Amino acid sequence: MIRKLLVATSLASLCLVSNAMAQETINMWVRTGIGTAFTSLADAYNASHENQIALTEVPFAELVQKYATAIAGGQAPDALSLDLIYTPAFAAAGQLQDLTEWAKGLEYFDSLSPSHVALGTYEDKVYGLPLLVETSVLAWNKGLYEQAGLDPEKAPANWDEVEANAEAIRALGGDNYGFYFSGGSCGGCMIFTFTPLVWASGVDILSEDGQTATLDTPQMRAAVDKYRSMVEKDLVPEGSATDNGVNFLSFTNGKIGHQSLGAFAIGTLVNDYPDIDFGVTLIPGIEGGTSSFAGGDNIVVTKDTPRLAAVQEFIEFAYSPEGQKILAQNGSLPTRSDIAAQTLEGLDPRLQVAVDAIGVAKTPYTLLFNDLINSANGPWATFTNAAIYGDDVDGAFATAQSEMQSIIDNAP
After folding, report:
1. CA atoms of 63 and 397, how far apart (whole Å)
2. How far is 15 from 43, CA to CA, in rounded Å?
């Protein structure tokens, strides 16, 4: 009897040990203040799965360097929520797990945000997948439209209409302005809101392989001329020239007629500024068409993590109808176009415009994004400020084109 009891106890203990060993805890780094969309997703996963995910918040400005240091020291997390623009650089360095076979085996792979997948791909292998999706859209203030005698339900279809409507709003006087953009030294702001003007017209600031600067085009010059015209006509507040992004949400003051914003601003306006009646539309190109910047985060996995299967399980939960709904309800756009309508059901209909933008959105593909574009002293930020506010447009183009190409050519 005692022997049978011991055997039974041993078997029970073995089962408990096996179950304990089967449970995995995913260590994942995220940027500080990542928001309730992702933390709510993680909470829901932990509540419904044996495997668990533990989040460590790292200040955004330190995340990339800290991750690189952790990899070098063998202390990297299993997974990371990484700004999609940095995915190619880490993939090229051989520091990320190749997810190609598993990712392409997902039945909905082709419906995932195309720009995020493109930035997550290096040499035809998938190293990053969309996690948090953001796009840029053009917002207009319906209340100011009505005051200016404009049709508040008619979105501007091109930049001539934006400028004409901006003039009518500025004519209201006082501190009412027709347009706003953070154009001082915020390269990230301007790549997000300004570059769609030329993308929609079929050109880019970099070649497809990222090896050639293609900044100086007739379309970019036309886009610069349009912004210069609105500045010269006093349709844009003076503070725009020195705004480093701090006032990116100036539209929320209720005195701005138009501004290109991120999709996140839709929720901000609805929840925090309910008195502002606004519409959103796709950003028109300077010569027709529409475009957007695809921003947000990819989820990447550290190479050779022993918890790869658990991370894949978490990603599949994020892509499930339940996970997609949790993300959308908390301010992130759907990553799957095939169930986007289902995901957005019951939410603000203006979010559909931001989702539509995913299909026409772009993100520059380069291993040098920070040096070329994000840096406050880099060629892109310097160019947009000098070309739009300065006296020497030709000089601004020539200098930026040369500096961008030099950075590319001298990269290690």
Report:
1. 32
2. 27
pTM of the model: 0.90
**Residues 278 and 269 sit within 8 Å (Cβ to Cβ):** yes
Q: Which residues contact 150 (CB under 8 A, 6 or more apart)?
A: 165, 168, 169
Angle at which helices 321-329 and 308-319 pack, to 10 degrees?
Answer: 70
The mean pLDDT values, 10 residues at a time, for the chain of 412 residues are 38 42 88 92 98 96 93 95 95 96 98 97 97 97 98 98 98 98 91 97 94 97 98 97 94 98 94 96 97 97 97 98 95 95 95 96 94 93 96 97 97 88
Q: What is the DSSP string of 194-229?
A: TTHHHHTTT--SB-TTS-SB----HHHHHHHHHHHH
DSSP state string for 261-316: EETHHHHHHHHH-TT--EEEEPEEPBTB-EEEEEEEEEEEEBTT-TTHHHHHHHHH
Spell out the residues 6+ positions from residue 395 whose beta carbon is closer than 8 angstroms to its own.
386
374 three-state secondary structure: helix
